[in-house]
Specification:
The complex is a heterodimer of chains A (303) and B (288). Residues 298-303 of chain A have low confidence and may be disordered. In chain A, strands 5-6-7-3-8-9 form a six-stranded mixed β-sheet, with helices on both faces. Chain A has a four-stranded antiparallel β-sheet with strand order 11-12-10-13. Chain A has two domains: 5-221, P-loop containing nucleotide triphosphate hydrolases (Rossmann fold, 3-Layer(aba) Sandwich); 225-284, Alpha-L RNA-binding motif (Alpha-Beta Plaits). Chain A is α/β, with parallel strands linked by helices and 303 residues long. Chain A contains eleven helices and 13 strands. Chain A has helices at 45-52, 74-79, 96-106, 113-122, 136-148, 166-181, 193-199, 217-223, 238-242, 267-273, 288-299, and strands at 5-16, 19-30, 34-38, 60-65, 81-84, 154-158, 185-190, 202-207, 210-216, 225-232, 247-252, 257-263, 278-284. The model of chain B is unreliable at 273-287 (pLDDT under 50). Chain B has helices spanning 2-32, 34-38, 40-52, 55-58, 70-79, 82-104, 106-110, 117-146, 156-183, 187-207, 215-218, 237-260, 271-276. Helix content of chain B is 71%, strand content 0%. Chain B is built from 13 helices and no strands. By secondary structure, chain B is an all-alpha fold. Classes of the chains: A alpha/beta (303), B mainly alpha (288). Chains A and B meet through β2, α1, α2 and α3 of A and α1, α7 and α13 of B.
Chain lengths: 303, 288
Amino acid sequence: MENTIAISTENLVKCYGRVEALHGVNLEVRTGEIFGFLGPNGAGKTTTIRCLLDLIRPNKGIVRVFGMEPKKFPHEIRARTGYLPGELHIEDNTTVESTLHYLNSLRGNKADWSYINQLAGKLNLELNIQIKNLSKGNKQKVGIIQALMHHPDLLLLDEPTFGLDPLIQREVLKLVAEARARGATVFFSSHILSEVQEISDRVGIIRNGRVVEVAETEKLINRTFHMVRIHFKYPVDAQKLDNIPGVSILTQQDNQNVTLQVEGEMDALIKALASYVVLDFETEHPSLEEIFLAYYQEDGKTI
Amino acid sequence: MIPVIRHTFSRYISQIIIWGFALGALCAYGLLLYDSLVEPEAQQQYIQLISNYPPELMAFFGDMTQMFTPGGYLDTLFFSYIPIVIGFFSIFSCASLLAGDEEKGILDLVLAHPISRTHLFFGRILAFISSTILILCIAWIGIVITLPKTSIEATVWEIILPFLSLFSLLIFFGTLTLLLSLLLPSSQWAVMVSGVLLVTSYFMTSLAKLSDNLRPIEKFLPMHYYQGGQALTKMNWSWLGILIGFSFLFSILAWWLFERRDIRVSGESGWRMSTFFGRKRSVSQKAD
C-alpha cells in the first residue's frame, strides 16, 4: 500500500465543539504526485492537513500517511514530512538562520546547509536578518525553506504562495515541481486555481467539510468557464451566440453589449465572432467560488 | 529533547540575568545592613519602631520578633515578600511555555517536526526549572559573597535551605499555571487564576497569624507550606515535599492533557470555553 498511496483518509470527521468541520472526508493521494487541495476559506483544507500530522485528532474515520496512523506514528510521519502551515508564525527575536538551525536540530540536523543556502538564494532571502524585521512574504519564504530543507518524502503545503510576489510564487512552484521530480509527494492546499492548474497532477475539491470531487487537473480545467464581455459596433442578434456549444448568455444590456459564460474552449465563440465587428472583448477568469457554483449548477445540485 | 531544552532555555536568558542579578543585589545590599541592626541600641530603636506599626502590616514581613536572628532577618529582608514578586515570573513563564506559543501559532510548526509531545513538554518544563534554579543561584551567590562581611553565623549551605523552600513554591505556581493554561481557554486565564491564588494565598497566610478564623483555611493555601527565612534554622522537609509533590502532580496532569488535546492554531484561544457555554461559532473561523 505504501508504494502507491501516500495519504489516505476514510470518512474523516472532525468537530470543534458543536461545529463539524469535516463531514467524512475521503481522499487518496498517490505517491509521487502533486495533489492540489482546493476549497474556499473555511472549507476544511487546513483541518484535513492538521489531522495528517496529528496536530489535531479526528473524531471519527481513519487517516493513514505512508500507511501509518498519525496518532500512533507521529514521529515517523513527521520525520518524512515537510509542512508549511497556512498561517506561519515564527519566534520574532531570532534570525532566520537561528530559526532554521533550531528547526533542523528538531530533525536531528538532517538538512544539508548547502541546500538551505541554495533555497535562500532562489527565494532571495538573507539568512542573517531578524525574523521581526521580515515582511509577511519573507516570513513565508522561511516557512518554505524549512519545509523543503530536509528533502522530505511528503510535502504538506497549506497555501504556499500566500503573500509572495509573482516572481517568487513562480520560484516556489518550480521548487515544488523539483521536489516531485525527486520523488516526493506534494499535497498542497490553495484557493488560487491558476497555480493548482499549473502544477497539480490531480485536484481534490473540498467544500463545507466534504470532498466533492477528485479529478485529474485537465478534467477540472475543462469544467472551468470564462466570463466574456463583448461590445459590438452594430446591433447583433445575441441568441445566435447562445446557440454556440458551451456558450450561454449571462446578461444582455442592449443589442451591442452582451456578457457570456463560455465553458471549455473559446475557439467556437471566436470563430463565430469573426462575422461581427467587435469594438471590445474582455475575458475574465472566474473565482473559485464561481467555478463551484457552475460546477454544481451543471449537475443540477444545490450547494 | 536536548534541542528543546536548549532553545527554551535561550528564551529565558535575559530573564535569568535580570531577575537573578536584581535579587542577588537586593540580598547583598540588605545583608550588609544586618550588623548595624543587631547593635543593642539599634535593636531598641527598631523594637520601638515596630511596636508603633499596626500588627496587620507587620504580618506581611514574617515573624518580626525573630528579626534579630539570621533567619528572621533574611525573612523580613527578602523571603517574606519575594514570592509575590518572583512568583509572577513563574506564572508568566509557564503560561507561555505551551499555551502561549500555541496561541501565537508557533507550536503548530514546532510539532510538525519529528518531536513527540512528551519530549516537547518535558523539554520545556526542564528548561523552566533550570532557569528558576539559575535565578535563585544568582540570588544565593549575592548572599554568599556578602555573608563573610557580616556577623551572621550561617554557612553558605544553610543559606540554600530558604532558597529551596522558595524554589518549591515557584515550581508549585509554575506547574499549576501550566496545568491551568492547558485546561482553561487561554494562557491569560491561567495567569489570572494563578495570580489571584498567589496574591490571595500570600495575604491570607500572612493575616492568619493574626486571626484564628483564617487558620483552618490557611492549611489549604500553598503559601502556608512556604517557610522562607525560617527554613534556615528549622527546615520542615514535609512541607517542602508537599509543594514539590503537588508540582509533580500538576506536571503529570498537564502532560496527560497535552498528550491528548488538539493543538490550536493562532487566534483559536477560547473555543473550548465557548463550547462549554454552548455558543456556536462558524466553521470558517477555524476550520479552513
